[in-house]
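#random but structural
TW: two for the price of one
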Amino acid sequence: MALPSMLGAAATAAPNPMTVPVKGLATPEDLGLIPGTDWIVTSASATQTIKNARTYFVNIRTHQVRPAYPDNFTAEIDRDKYGEMAPPEVVNFHGLDIIKATDGTITLYQVNHRVHLSPTEVVGREAIEVFTIRMTPAGPSLQWRGAIPLPSWVMANDCCALPEGGVAVTNTAFGGQESFTALVTGRSSGNVIEWHDRQQGWSVVEGTDLNAPNGIAVSPSGEHLFVCSSATKQFHRISRKNPHGDRATVDLSGLPDNVTWTPDGQLLIATSVGEMAKLFAAAAAGKLTAPLRILKVDPVTLKVETVLEDNPGNCAISTVLQVSRNEIWAGGLGIEDRLLAYRV
């Protein structure tokens, strides 16, 4: 959808977001626009009130809602590429990305986590679930194609589809108390890993030892990765071929989460205003709330602009996605039965 960006400089007043009803949706941590269509797809994980995670397609113009996983999918596994396995019985979807190939095939990658039913019962898997999105006269549907199991030392957060094929994933923390302490205090806690095929498996992207690597995007050419470091409030551009010689870092005014492309080739970042340790403490106390600051970054100059600020209350916005000339949709933790839509 080749729409020009209308995102301006800093907002002078907090906006009043519209609500896009999506009954049954819980924790839409990430959103992705299906290329060439008016539809987005969500991630989802269960909450106390919505115990079964389900993802949805939502039309950005009509606000029509269609089920995605597990209510609107077929399974046709690509055994050569992914091996022998079954579709996930339970899901806990985190970051996602969508790519359209030159032959028209649309592929969706979704980070999937295990589900902790109790302190002693854990179900599901840590993997990247891979789908083909099929467009029908009634709207989109999913075809599950396989999954890419993640290494045991990876705490996956976001992912981006690589233009040459495969996927890159942010490993926010290696696990364990030491890694968590490093994350919160701004020290290196994780990295970026890539997967291209089963024969090569996962590999660490050199030069990506970062603090809390979170949102990730790749340039259309595949030359650079763009990675958010949450606790340090930084945004990195790292060359995949020359990660030590060709890299740049800019400081942001908030804790960055996910990053998405705008139709005119800018990068949009959802950030929370505050400090990581304080936000974690508030969430642990059942008071999940974080003021939102949406930033726009030029991928070439790395110039940063504030698009808008808001305090949506009782949630933490993790993803913002420009869906039209002057509208940004948002999802995040603590959100149920809806998405938010900001006019800018």
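TW: number two ↓
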Amino acid sequence: MKRILLAAAVAAVAVTSAIVSAPEARSESPASKWTVDPVHSTVLFKIKHLGASWTYGRFDSVEGGVDAADDGSAPSAVRLVVKTDSVNTGNDKRDGHLKSPDFFSAKQFPEITFQSTSAKPLDADTTEVTGDLTLHGVTKSVTARVVRVGTGSMQGRTLAGWETTLSLKRSDFGMAKMVGPVGDDVTLTVAVEAGK
């Protein structure tokens, strides 16, 4: 009889433990879905020209989404799509060259994408986001510190903004032409506003 009672008690503890640890039983509220506003979002870049100065540019087409808390904190997933044909440095001739096979090869690779694979909150406003960046047909894992800029509202819609700056080597993504006259190291600033 004691053995039966002991076995029943062990089984009850095991079942209770399973229920408590099951994802469905957690009290965490699911993240809200935020949709990127392409009008108020941008991807900026800078790269050295002839080792003498920085050339700046941007991409005018940015879409995607962010999963984050209702106040925009603790983003848990980020998805971004940038159209390479939207590159804009303020000079039509240079933009045409950047879209050519020498650089982005925009016809062959029309999109730059980022899909997060993990997110680690560092403090109330900063999250370390790791994900797959696909550029020029090459996918590599990158990690960036994403900072919540703030929240606001417009016409009854809640808005949130995030920003990050990271560096990469374009040659790592198969964009090795003209390395020397044009730098290999690129600094990206990604600024996103999204609404839910």
